[in-house]
Amino acid sequence: MNPQNLSLNPTSIRSKFTKTFLRALTRINNRRPPISPSREIYQRYRRVKIAADASMASAVGSRRTWSRAILWKIRNQRRYRALVSRRISTHAMTKRDPRENYGREVGHGSADELRRIVPGGEAMDFCSLLGETAHYIKCLNTQVQVMRSIADLYST
Amino acid sequence: MSSRRSRQSGSSRISDDQIIELVSKLQQLLPEIRNRRSDKVSASKVLQETCNYIRGLHKEVDDLSERLSQLLATIDADSAEAAIIRSLIM
After folding, report:
1. Contact (CB<8Å) A102/B19
2. How far is B82 from chain A (nearest CA, A)?
3. What are the residue boundaries of the IBH1-like N-terminal domain, all occurrences included (chain A) (predicted)?
4. Nearest to B84 among A101, A137, A150 (CB)
């Protein structure tokens, strides 16, 4: 056995995510269903999705802006929506650091698009945005792989 | 409107080289661009592909969430955890 096999490392992001997510799935399964069955299906899907995102963000912890943004958003749903609309309008009005314009020159505004897609991306400088994006992509890939493994395991 | 300002070397916190390096790191993560084996991908294209790729991953998470919500009753967390962590060799 290779002791450095990352998949057996209990502290790896993948392991933490798997553990947390599976526990969340059990909890969701044990919840009392709502009165109407049609609502139940949608609610379960929503809860699973939120559990997946939250489990990954919590596996990463607070060391990344994107994971903090997700955790904060989930904990403060209503307040988050008000803040985001305020933050986006003030961000557009303030004078940008000329170095940040690199994102605009380069991408014709696709850096703006990236900012909307990466959690917490609105307030980052361009360099940080790129670094966070790379980490976010790696974690999303892990999330998808584990979710797919679970689904395949129980699909037969 | 952004006017082209002369780039300050040395004192600037964000250098062109840093940005180029970060963009190429992103490029390595994108399967589509990686497989084209072309060095001449513009940063703009990388950003665009990145957005598309992330959106694709979000969609996969959505689809898998739906699948899992249907399988919920059959999932046994403890044996699943052991099986998955054992089998994921990355």
Report:
1. yes
2. 9
3. 11-77
4. A150
The whole-model pTM stands at 0.76
pLDDT, tens digit (0-9, with 9 covering 90-100), for B36-59 = 655 667 888 888 889 999 999 999
Instruction: Please give the residue that has the higher pLDDT: either A29 or A34.
Output: A29
Mark B12-47 as b/e (b = at least 16 C-beta within 10 Å): eebeeeebeebbeebbebbeebeeeeeeebebbbbb
ipTM of the complex: 0.76
Q: Taking CB atoms and an 8 Å cutoff, what residues of chain A touch B13?
A: 99
Q: What is the CA radius of gyration of chain A?
A: 19
Q: Which residues of B touch A150 (CB under 8 A)?
A: 68, 75, 80, 84
Q: Where along chain B do its domains lie?
A: 3-89
What's the topology of domain B3-89? Answer: MYOD Basic-Helix-Loop-Helix Domain, subunit B (4.10.280)
